[in-house]
Amino acid sequence: MAAKPRDAVRRGPSMVRISERLTRLQPAATRVVSEKAADLRRQGRDIISLSTGEPDFVSPPAVMEAARRALDAGHTFYTPAAGLLELREEVARYYKTRFALEYEAREVMIGAGGKPLLFEACAALLNPGDEAIIIAPAFVSYVEQVRFCDAKPVIIETDPQTLDFSLGDIRAAITDRTRMIMLNAPNNPSGRIYGDDLVVGLCELAIEHDLTIINDEIYERIIFDGITYRNPLNLCPAARNRMLHINGASKSLAMTGWRIGFAIGPAELIKRMTMLQGHNTSGPSSIAQWAALGGLRNGQEQIDAMAAQYQKRKDLITARLGRMPYLRYIPPQGAFYIFADIRAAYGKSVGDMTITDDVSFCEALLEYAEIAAIPGAAFLQPGFFRMSFATSEDIIETAMTRMHDFLAALA
What pLDDT score does 38 carry? Predict the structure, then answer.
């Protein structure tokens, strides 16, 4: 019998060859902790999860009604790869109303959430060996997406007392391979909104060195204590051709599961990102796009109501945290997170566990207080941990009582 050709030999499951770039990819810590908390709940543990950055509100009536109308009208077909023209025009109108910035529909792209748009921006801007500046603490996906493009993330550490970055540090980090800077405000995980002088300085560096700023402002509608969030171009209009805004419906409109994000920026960059999306997802769900359009047009009252609830929750959790030992938090100015410094608890013990870093702290917190939180190391800021207060006041009260008892019991 003739031997089979070598390429016809069937490989076993263990022989699948995974690409090197994918084997370098690390899972998102936020998802890992959330899934572990859910698994412990299935085992009967009374776990309170403060790990997920997801509003607990159901999408507003304006969103639901627009989706129903789209279904009744039979809008179940492909949309243009860049997204519905009506939705792109509405996003451009929103940026004009909200920030007094003029954009055309061709400078707007709709994606299946903010993460795919961030990835498409990295793929459009980065070649192998290029560098991207990332300011810590940072959203967990920035580093992995840059690495996946065979580029190098350059991490800028911030002052642990304020979480502000230094323009001098960023200038020193710029090389002839630097292509982009990631800016995220209100920041995930800290809720920090950077001062005008820092933002203007960053824009000026981008202009000087021919860099693109990825301005991730997905939380810009969730702001506290009367603070005003200003888009970077309100502070430095000259940076318009150096700025790509990433926004979306997930946070402000409580539409996480609908997966709708917006990218707004230079037409050529949007064109290239759209081309990539056309070969990847072909664009987001048509019904989800019509739903987001309804939310943008008619959901302002619900957006304001949710923002007011986040303010109450922020006030509640910070009041409780202010009376706890070993913990120092950075007051959030936006988003719905507390980012707290836990280094004072290093060396303390509970049960058979000793706290040596932020990871072991979160492990002990989960085991002995049944609270799930995210270690700061996941956000490039060891010594801290993140809690989400996108949950009810009753749950926050219960979680804070458990946390106080846990901290008070540390030996």
Answer: 79
